[in-house]
Amino acid sequence: MTRHTDDDGSAEESSEDDRGDGRDRGEPTPGVPEAGRDEQPSIFVPDDGEIPEDDAIGARDSEAAAGADDAATRAATDGGVESATGGTDSTDLDPDAYDPVDVFPGGDLDLREGADSCYKCTSCDTSCPVAEVDDEFPGPKFQGPEQWRLKRKGDHDIDESITSCSNCMRCDDACPSSVPLSQMHNEARGQFVERQMEKLSVEYVRNRLLANYRTSARLASMFPRTASFAMNFGPARWAMEKVMGIPKERDFPEFATETFREWWKARGGAKVENPDKRVAYFHGCYSNYNTPEVGKAMVRVYEHFGYEVMVPPQKCSGTPMFANGMLDDARRHAETNVENLVEAIGEGADVIASCTSCSMSLRQEYPELFDLHGIDDLAEHTFEAMEYLRIHEDLEGELDAAGGPDEERELAYHAPCHARNQGLARQAVETFRDVDGVTVEDVGDSCSGISGTYGWKEEKYEKSMEIGEEMFEHMEDAEGDVGMTECPTCAMQMEHGTGYEIEHPLQLLEDSLGA
């Protein structure tokens, strides 16, 4: 039914005999305001114009009845405003009666709902390691919902401070309203680099080289010993800082004389065939070119539990590209990864990553930023390597039966920010706390400070070391003199700040199981 009011705004005419003093002269009674349009009585009329008997009683002998008969010839809403749908159940809108207002023009990526969820509690700002050491950095709240609202206006440029975000993603974990902060940061950073950064500037060239580490690592791996020496040669390091803005204090990681994929090929691939237990290993760039021992440990541990390991063709996860606003580069790599990993999923495999930044990229950043066929399936089937075993295997029982490693081990464990964001902050400590001969001490919840490529920029180096200072102190206070983490760049920072040898939890698991 459609609600109507009379055209003259009243439902019934009062008799002059009923009026109080002054009303017969047309003067309003003091203290009693005139009834507004929305306060006036209404009657209901169905779309066919027939007035129900009950509603018409008391109105037939008044001007309201005449108004209702007239109103029945047209559809109306409360207050006599014509309905945009013509008073029927039809969803077709009459353009002349409907005036849409789009406050924020929509696009391929509409983050309006997320931005509106922010109520400025500043939890993200207080959790941001960069904001803690950099007084000029406005923090995640500005870089996220506030900047997004501003940049929706066509004449507003992205603030350059977006390049100071380290992409640690701690703000996502801190937000009580689930505002997609890191997604907003990635989108804004990508637009800044694409539209505002000078493509011939030293900063852009340097960032592009850092973001595309896989390309330089692949070239270096052709002559690993020569490349490792040349990139850490004193004069070369000095020149890199002066010309490219890469801090001379940083030591480049050594390149493996045999990459993981070369080892995998020489080994003859998987040693276990089991169509009921399959995993596709996403090793990432660093485990392939720099620390193949991590990939080997992953393969041996999973084969110990009866898994058939697949190693599909793959490119970089895109994490360093997201951090540097190179979204087109990241998409090209993502297209290859999604295609090959989804094919493995179709063959019954789940996807396993030994780097927490890689697993975070595949399961969160890909579906947030790209619209690729199969991308949601990939996110659903992606796990971090230790996480997957803790879900599907009796790790505690296996470790108890194995009796622990041959030698006692004491390790200082740091949980990477990208592990915390996936709820994996305590997994290594919980896995090894009851293993004979193993002591794992958590060195706190502080950020390591390197945040991928952030700490590899000359202008950010001192800030990255200041962020990591708390972690360094806790590591030095720990009983052990060996560090442990799942993130390769956190491992660089831990070694750089303490001089400790750093291992991956998979390596300790391999030793403890005797795999």
UniProtKB/TrEMBL annotation:
Region: Disordered, residue numbers: 1-100
Domain 4Fe-4S ferredoxin-type: 154-187
GO cellular component, one term: glycerol-3-phosphate dehydrogenase (FAD) complex
Signal peptide: none
Record's compositionally biased regions (Acidic residues): 8-19, 47-56
Domain of life according to the entry: Archaea
GO molecular function terms listed in the Swiss-Prot or TrEMBL record: 4 iron, 4 sulfur cluster binding; metal ion binding; oxidoreductase activity
SUPFAM superfamilies: alpha-helical ferredoxin
Low complexity biased stretches: 64-80
GO biological process terms on file: anaerobic respiration
Annotated Gene3D superfamilies: Alpha-helical ferredoxin
Keywords, comma-separated and alphabetical: 4Fe-4S, Iron, Iron-sulfur, Metal-binding, Repeat
Protein name per Swiss-Prot or TrEMBL: sn-glycerol-3-phosphate dehydrogenase subunit C
Organism per entry: Halorubrum hochstenium ATCC 700873
